[in-house]
Amino acid sequence: MDIAYKGEHLLPGNLGQFFIVLAFGSALFSFICYFFATQEKVAKSDNSWLRLGRIGYWLNTVSIIGMGTCLFYILYNHYFEYHYAWSYTSRSLPTYYIVSGFWNGQEGGFLLWMFWEAVLGNILIWRAKSWEKPVMTTLALSQAVLGTMVLGLQIGSAHVGSSPFLLLRNSGMQAPIFQNPDYLSFIKDGKGMNPSLQNYWMIIHPPTLFLGSASLVVPFAYAVAGLWKKRYKEWIQPAIPYALFSCMVLGTGVVMGSFWAYESLNFGGFWAWDPVENASIFPWLMLVGALHVMIVYKNTGHSYFTATFLVMISFVLVWYSSFLARSGVLGESSVHAFTDLGLFWQLVIGVLIFLAISVYLLVSRWKELPITKKDEETYSREFWMFVGAVFLGLSCFHLIVVTSIPVWNLMFGTKMAPPTDPVKHYNVIQASFAVVIALLSGFTQFLKYKRTDITRFFITTLIYLAFAALITALVVYATGFYKLHVVFILVMLCSVYSVVANAKILADSFKGKYKLAGSAVAHIGFGLLLVGALISSGTKKVVSENITGEQFSAEFAKDEDPKENLLLYKNEPLRLGDYMVTFTGDTVEGASHFFNIDYKRMKDGKVTESFTLRPNVIQAQGGMSSTPDTKHYLFHDLYTHITMTNLISTQPAAEEAQHGATDDDKNYDAPVAHEVAVGDTIPYRDGVIVLKKLNRSVKLQDIPITDKDIALGAQLEVITHGKTYEAEPVYMIKGNSQLDFGKKLEDAGLKLRFTKVIPDDNKIEITVYQQPESKKKFIVLKAIEFPYINLFWAGTIIMVIGFLLSIFRRNKEFKAI
Amino acid sequence: MKKSAIFGIVVIAVAIAVIISAYSNTSSYGSFTDAQKNNTELHVVGHLNKKKELIYDATKDANYFSFYMLDKDGKECKVVYPGTKPQDFERSEQIVLTGKMKGSEFHASKILMKCPSKYTDEKLNVTEATAQKSASL
């Protein structure tokens, strides 16, 4: 039955779908043309295959840009007839988040990946010269495989790819509403963006990460080209700058992700060993290893196989981590794995295609590979660089084995569960690898290629090791790090050693060996990153411990120490570490609900420092997400987030208001009447109330007061938790009736009524209503202190600078040839 | 023996050590009955018993949350978690707990919950209900 739907905007979707098919078709066409261009024994004079291949790739690039434009147009104009727009955006979403809505879904992620690959392909067409044909064959193949992921074709019962231009009514939701031709007028708004993604880091982190992963295809394509065209020795030189670029960008992308986790999520840190996080560094670890052996091969001719193997495996791992994150296989073990879009087998095929190419080429060319028969010298730089690369590979291997537990279960029908304390497991084992890697990244710098003067080497190594030990001892003592597992202290020693050894190399490079600067800087950065990560996560301290409230059961309190969440009533200061904290109020800005929390550092009863943190809670998609606020110091960060509050309710607001209106007194404890004279004090649970004086000339807004009426105001002063409030409840006799107008003090949780005048004693009666503890406004917060976290970020930035310097150097070398 | 051969053996040894340590560190998925039998930490998959109350009162103890969960065999057990109630806990469709039994209570150190994908349909149904109402008016 065909229904003529009203109000739909089908054009951008149809156009977008056309571009998707065109992108896939042109990539496939380009792949075929480049393949034949590469296979030609003698190049024809007109180079027709090559030209067709280029045209195919350019067409692919244009279609990808077209697709992106259509999708953005749909999101920007809030066309909720499209499933993608409806799922990830809403009208209230600010424009800059519409940009991140673009890659909120998996389809957008693929689009971004294809876009970067298209950009890289065009750079290669421009620059790769004799390598263009074979290298572009691989890129075009990769584009075609990616193209199938967004095709959204239905073939029989199976579907190929998931299109971002899917209409809501075709998305498989069985709702009778779609029988109504005018259904769109009932879909007023989209579901909106997951609140934890509404963060500025989500605008910049995914594009960087995707550029990093997409760029791994370039070294891979060079490795394939080298084996395919039997130009075994030549491919490494031009691939080095691209490999450096990938390491730099992918590393930056991953750390941006950890910065996002640190700033916006409640994992309580920058790295949680979540399977999806782990998956994102598999390719990085492998490629960093690969890069080192590529340099070894370039300089000495050793480690050819290892270099080729690691480059190839690192790209296969890009696909594997994409499979882990997107196939839903991690469902029970990860917080932020995507659910299956029905792409499971397609992703498996993606991994297998590139794995098969790698295995086939390595096996078929095995006998011809330039593998040296001679052993490396023990005291040579190449040998220890090789060892380091292998250990990077092993560390990655460990991550893969543990992260893939759900995959092993699926493959072998086992029922293993991830370690119960994964963080500890990963920390200890990865730290052991880090000991070796950091140590190697230090002393290998003192070795020379081929052969080294042994005595001199040992002397320098030991001097710097002693120096590093001294620094480490100081750092470990000063930060309280010595309480930790011995392996972490060893990592610390080796990281410090790496920093000082490379600092020496950097100093030498200023004296003229400028070529070494890039690697020295990158290694210093890596060492600092490790030091920062170690101190920060090793000595982070939950400052919101030691709850003062009552306990549920003494036994429970005994085993479940320490307590990390702290209850804070509005305007009641509480001690938190060195600070006095007060929850002073809350404001609503858009979808975000901000809480103002005053921090005062006290020393000898004096306030030495005072600031306000404003963590917030966002409500969207029917859920809540808490965003912390952080006070940054040079040497530590103080991080606060709200874990619970009674100010925001997930119940509809109307229902609550109704409750409130029917019987206001229910919100208070039983009233207590006090007879007082002027100057008397009424004590109550949270402070005192003082009757200052009686005001005989009260003016009330709506009630005219004549001479016959009596109106009295009781000027009260409420002192609670160091704050003073004023209130003036009014008592009045009008005609024959007695009236009184109570005053509410929301902030103090009080309601005060002036209920009686007792003329004989010259006293009046004040009735005090106070809110029970549970009705008072409160928040529950968690505050964590992260020491030396800046070393981690600084280390990352220094490492990126090191990579940049190396790229310039290698590029220059390459051009020189 | 050649140096590369020695190094190769070292690498293989490390790889085996990694697999063994990973394997010995894996825990298992089980039911509450399994948890009662052996006093080790394990993962229990199940769903929230929505009929029984969730206990979380920050004013009494901000770090005490308890609820009743049904495991895959349908066995019910009281679960205690030393922290705040996770946001949207009531809406969870499936819960994975990590922890162990203490007496008759299961003490969870970690809660991982899956929120419903069905949610999409529910919301549309709501829109639809309003649609019919406005049509009849």
Automatic annotation (TrEMBL), chain A:
GO cellular component terms given for this protein: membrane
Q: Which InterPro entries match?
A: CcmF_C, Cyt_c_assembly, Cyt_c_biogenesis, MFS_trans_sf
The keyword Oxidoreductase is assigned to this record: no
TM ranges are 15-37, 57-76, 110-128, 140-160, 209-228, 240-261, 281-297, 304-323, 343-363, 383-408, 428-447, 454-478, 484-507, 514-535, 788-808
Q: Where is the Cytochrome c-type biogenesis protein CcmF C-terminal domain?
A: 354-540
Can you cite a GO biological process for this protein?
A: cytochrome complex assembly
Q: Does the keyword Transmembrane apply?
A: yes
**One Pfam assignment:** CcmF_C
Provide a Gene Ontology MF annotation, just one. heme binding
Give the domain of life.
Bacteria
Protein keywords: Cytochrome c-type biogenesis, Membrane, Transmembrane, Transmembrane helix
Which intervals hold domain Cytochrome c assembly protein?
137-327
Q: Which family does it belong to?
A: Belongs to the CcmF/CycK/Ccl1/NrfE/CcsA family.
Name this protein carries in UniProt: Cytochrome c biogenesis protein CcsA
> Per the UniProt entry, what species is this protein from, by scientific name?
Mucilaginibacter segetis
Q: What is the lineage of its organism?
A: Bacteria, Pseudomonadati, Bacteroidota, Sphingobacteriia, Sphingobacteriales
UniProt lists the gene as ccsA
UniProtKB/TrEMBL annotation, chain B:
Q: Does the keyword Iron apply?
A: yes
Q: Does the keyword Transmembrane helix apply?
A: no
Gene Ontology cellular-component terms for this entry are: plasma membrane
Q: Where in the cell is it found?
A: Membrane
Molecular function in Gene Ontology: heme binding
> Which UniProt keywords are present, listed alphabetically?
Cytochrome c-type biogenesis, Heme, Iron, Membrane, Metal-binding
Domain of life (superkingdom): Bacteria
Q: What is the recorded name of this protein?
A: Cytochrome c maturation protein CcmE
Biological process according to GO: cytochrome complex assembly; protein-heme linkage
